[in-house]
Design brief:
By secondary structure, this protein is α/β, with parallel strands linked by helices. The protein has 14 helices and 18 strands. Strands 10-11-12-9-8-14-15 form a seven-stranded mixed beta sheet, sandwiched between helices. Strands 5-4-3-6-7-17 form a six-stranded mixed beta sheet, with helices on both faces. The chain has a three-stranded antiparallel beta sheet with strand order 1-2-18. It is an enzyme of class 1 (oxidoreductase).
């Protein structure tokens, strides 16, 4: 929060017995919901989306208050959540299958998609309305029932979304919210025999544990985890454009996005000018109250996260990286005297690809610059990471842009655009340690939230 004395609300903390009750309710509701008319499902999702959009200023205010992203970003996130529900209201009516001939005469074959059952959704704090939306909406659209476990830091946003869903007209038990610590609620959800699938967004360590548990019990699993996203800047890039997209990707949303660019890979000739211009751009970033006009970057989400960010500053210094900007806690720019976890946007230069600052996800407003000689080295360095979510290139060369789109080992590639910022109607996800399982969002969401059935009929 921008003001640590601001009490946002008080919310109930559940336990394992609440997970049991929620899963039981979802399992009881599943037979009717999964076979219900598609128009009723579509109408419910459309109603949810309509209310979210009508209240986006109010909900954005809550989100900014609670999580700390700037008010314009928060309102934008809420708007995206509303659009997601409306998109999947349409997908309810676009369910399709196939009818194909059998190789055996007189036999017809139908291939259909069906819901998988009770789905457990475990969501993070950095997008407390949008990420739950892009998991809940397809789950409901395709006929599943849901138990949502949101992050501990953002119960207000989760409760507001659940309240809207509750009043949409969906039957009791179809959607359920259980809030509480991950080691209790998440573990109970993952290990429950009546939960058919788990969709998780969060840290790599927790994700790997969930994957192991789901494989052992035969659950379907979808994971979105970390990123260490590269932003390449070539000698032929438009300097102003490259600086702006690097600043947007690295520091906006306080760098607390899995798609943020924390590795800036810059070629020799443009390197000095890029560093100077980026430092000037960073000096204009106003850090302060997320809801105040003119604020570009709100506070870090919590004391623990701030301590982690600052610890990586010391790690980078110890490894020999040169601190070019930031690196410390700062006061609120509005001069209001409010106490929050404010940190200056931080830049390290003259770093090496093997440094921890370039290998491990910081998840804060911290970026590092790696100097390379040419495009070929830039590509090799960008792919030299255990992650593979998003990657960007700034260039005016069609040849290099085309080659990068094909050879970047990332799930999403941006050309002359920030690495952070994606559409809601197209697939989202990465490779390597960033993602596991089917993609999220858009029509590709059906790969996770449905199962395929092949039916034969003797004519």
């Amino acid at each position: 929060p921008s003001d640590l004395s601001d009490v946002i609300g008080e919310y109930a903390q559940g336990g394992a017995s609440d997970v049991q009750a929620a899963v039981s309710a979802a399992a009881a509701a599943f037979p009717a919901w999964s076979t219900s008319g598609i128009q009723a499902r579509s109408d419910a999702l459309d109603k949810i989306g309509t209310e979210i959009l009508a209240r986006k200023a109010e909900l954005g205010e809550l989100l900014a208050r609670e999580e700390g992203k700037t008010l314009p970003e928060a309102i934008g996130e809420v708007g995206r959540a509303g659009q997601i529900f409306k998109f999947f209201a349409g997908e309810c009516l676009r369910l399709s299958g196939e009818t194909v001939p059998s190789v055996r005469p007189g036999i017809a074959v139908e291939i259909t998609r069906e819901p998988i059952g009770v789905v457990g959704l475990i969501t993070p704090w950095n997008f407390p309305i949008a990420i739950p939306a892009w998991k809940i909406a397809p789950a409901l659209a395709f006929g599943n029932c849901v138990v949502l476990k949101p992050a501990d830091l953002v119960p207000g946003s989760a409760w507001a979304l659940a309240d809207i869903i509750h009043r949409s007209g969906i039957p009791a038990g179809v959607f359920n919210l259980v809030m509480g610590p991950g080691r209790v609620i998440g573990e109970a959800l993952v290990n429950h025999a009546d939960v058919a699938a788990i969709s998780f967004t969060g840290s790599v360590g927790v994700g790997r544990g969930i994957a192991a548990a789901c494989v052992a019990s035969g659950k379907k699993v979808q994971l979105e985890m970390g990123g260490k996203n590269p932003q390449i800047v070539l000698d032929d890039a438009d300097l102003a454009q490259a600086v702006e997209l690097s600043a947007q990707s690295g520091f906006y949303s306080t760098g607390q996005r899995c798609t943020a660019s924390s590795r800036l890979i810059v070629t020799d000739k443009i390197y000095p000018a890029f560093i100077e211009a980026l430092q000037e751009r960073m000096a204009r970033i106003k850090v302060g109250d997320a809801r105040a006009a003119g604020t570009d970057m709100g506070p870090v989400v919590s004391q623990a996260q701030l301590e982690q960010d600052l610890s990586y500053v010391e790690i980078a210094k110890a490894e020999g990286a040169r601190l070019a900007a930031g690196g410390a806690r700062v006061a609120c720019h509005t001069g209001s005297g409010k106490q929050g976890y404010y940190m200056a946007p931080t830049l390290f230069v003259d770093t090496e690809a093997g440094m921890r600052i370039n290998r491990e996800e910081v998840f804060g407003p911290v970026a590092s610059v790696i100097r390379v000689k040419d495009y070929e080295e830039a590509l090799a360095v960008s792919n030299d990471t255990p992650f593979g979510l998003s990657a960007g290139i700034a260039t005016t060369s069609l040849k290099h842009a085309t080659h990068f789109k094909r050879h970047s080992q990332a799930g999403m590639v941006m050309v002359n655009l920030p690495t952070a910022g994606v559409d809601y109607h197209v697939p989202f996800g990465g490779r390597k340690g960033s993602s596991y399982g089917p993609r999220e969002q858009g029509r590709y969401a059906q790969e996770f939230y449905t199962t395929v059935k092949t039916a034969y009929t003797l004519a």
